[in-house]
Structures are given as structure tokens and as C-alpha cells.
Amino acid sequence: MVIHITIPIVPKAQARDRIGVIAGKARSYKSPKQRLEENKLQYLLMAQRPPEPFKGAISLIVGIYLPIPKKSRIWQEKALKGEIRPTTRPDIDNYAKQILDTMQGIYFADDKQVVTMEIYKRYGNQPRWEIRLEGD
After folding, report:
1. What are the b/e assignments for 29-51, b being 16+ CB within 10 Å?
2. Scanning 22, 43, 59, 91, which has the fewest C-beta atoms within 10 Å of its C-beta?
């Protein structure tokens, strides 16, 4: 089975966990801003979920389309054509972590099922996540 998903929001990378001390013990927790981003993404993913999660090996392709920065018109046209690609932070692996953690439990039981993954960043007029999921 193959599923194509478009999530029309500005992609956000996963933020690092916060560390706090509670009752003398160090604890890690997600920031409220990170939880909000995960909840928004999860809500939009739920609307397109399969009848039941994939079982077995999964191949995943994730396209991250980021807003075009305010620069010269020529620079923006080149970015839109793909001649200029986003090489700035956040790192691509943080985007991967965000999407894998959010899809877990909805599209597959555990992200260990993902055996191949392609992920890329581009600029686009419409910021979005483009996801292609293939599996059993």
C-alpha cells in the first residue's frame, strides 16, 4: 500500500528536550512550544490516516518545503526553481525526528519499522510537508 500525504503547514524541526530538576532529580521534558507543534502536525496527520497502521517494513520519502526568505526577486525565483536550496539550520535530521515521532502510533506502531528513508529540503510558495509512505 502507498499513501501520499500533504500537510499544509510550515515545517518545524524537533526541538531539544528541556532539562529540569524535580525533587532533586534531573528530568527531561518537551517545551510547550514543541508540544504545540507536535499536536498541530498530529491533528493534520490523523485526518489522512490509514484504516490501520502499517505492519512490517516501511519506506518513507519526506519533502520539506520551507517559506522563501525575503531576498531579491532573482534570488527568490532561483529558490523556487530549486537552483538555491536551504542549507541553513535547523538540520534535516531534526525534521526527520519530528515527522517520525509524530507519525508513530498513527501510521506505524514504531519508527523501527522504517527501513528506508529519503528526506529533502526545498523552498516553496506553499510551505508544507510532502510525505510518501509505502509498506505492507
Report:
1. ebeeebeebbeebbebbeeeeee
2. 22
CATH superfamily label, 2-135 = Holliday junction resolvase RusA (3.30.1330.70)
Cβ partners under 8 Å of residue 51, min gap 6: none
Give the per-residue pLDDT at 32. 86
Rounded to 5 degrees, φ, ψ at 70 are: -75, 95
Q: Which three cell numbers stand for residue 98?
A: 519530528
**What cell numbers appear for 25 in the block?**
532529580
Domain boundaries in the chain? 2-135
Euclidean distance between CA atoms 93 and 85, whole angstroms: 16
CA distances from 29 to 32, 33, 35, 114, 125 (A): 9, 12, 10, 25, 34
Question: Are 132 and 3 a contacting pair, CB within 8 Å?
Answer: yes
Quick one: pLDDT at residue 24?
87
* CA–CA dist 121, 62 (Å, integer): 9
For residue 136, pLDDT over 80 is answered with no
